[in-house]
Design a protein that fits this description.
Elements (H helix, E strand, L loop, with lengths): L1 H27 L17 E6 L5 H17 L2 E6 L5 H13 L4 E5 L4 H13 L4 E4 L5 H4 L3 E5 L1 H16 L3 E7 L5 H14 L5 E7 L8 H10 L5 E4 L5 H9 L8 E5 L5 H6 L5 E4 L2 H16 L11 E3 L2 E3 L6
Parallel strand pairs: 1-2, 1-3, 3-4, 4-5, 5-11, 6-7, 6-8, 8-9, 9-10
Antiparallel strand pairs: 10-12
Amino acid sequence: MRKIVALMAAGLGGFLFYSTFQAAGAVFYTNWHLPAESKESPDRPRVAFIMNEMDHPFWVEVIAGAEEQAEIAGVDLDVTGIYGTNRDDFLRKIEIAIYSKVDGIIVQGLDHEKFKELTKLKAASYGIPIITVAHDVPKEESLRKTYVGSNQFSAGEQLAAQLIEDMGPEGEVVLMMNAEQEYFQQQRLDGIKNYLNGHSEIETIEAKIGADSNPDISAISDLLNYYPETEAYIAVNAAFTQNLVTEIETRSKVDPYYLYTFDEEREAYALLESGKIDGIVEQSPQEMGKISVQRMKEWLDKENVPLDIEGYFTETRIIKDAAPQ
């Protein structure tokens, strides 16, 4: 009888060993490629730097600033992201960084429930600090340590002030944004409206023209058809700018219009140089990259704890000629 029990125990042990081995294989042999172990000194902190649209001129500058500061500060920076705006792929990059147990994550903020879950629950459970850069998310919903980038509310006010200076204190203004509006767009919108509320002869029209960050030109056409007398447009989401100009040009010259955008529009400076738009809010992307890495290193070294929860704001300015400053 004892022999039978011993054989059963041995068999059960073998089965459990095999099952454990299989489970481990499922973890380590998936198509999730975790960042390689750092070849740098073990004393150098490993920080993931995660972006959307990594080939976009704006984000290229953010990354350049971050890499420059990482060399100065002695940070092993793992720059990763996607070449586009696929939300699921972007969120997967964040999740991979968390599971690879980096020391910190600097990331372009995304106002989405999954992003907030990753930063508020998973990253926090691993003790990984999060800093948002360029685009923020509500601080109470993400538990990010700080934000580095433009004061979007003030940038909206700056743009509204330029519009009044160019157009005068009366008229209609269409404010173009996504239907699924992100936090940074809402901040810009609030700043624009706050400034224009002081001008009773200005009527603002909020145009939510689709969930896509780069809507079909038919949506822009419908907008122009609905407001045929309006001559002032602000692309709160800069990605709408090119389609707006293209559609206006199929109908008339752009000269009578007052068109404004932000420098995240790929063709912003070319459009300004050709006289097709009237002004750009120019941000400071390289400074965003530099300061975000600097603040992360200070946090990890416990030199600046806590970081300013409201954020560290970089300069914005209105550009009326085509040469970036």
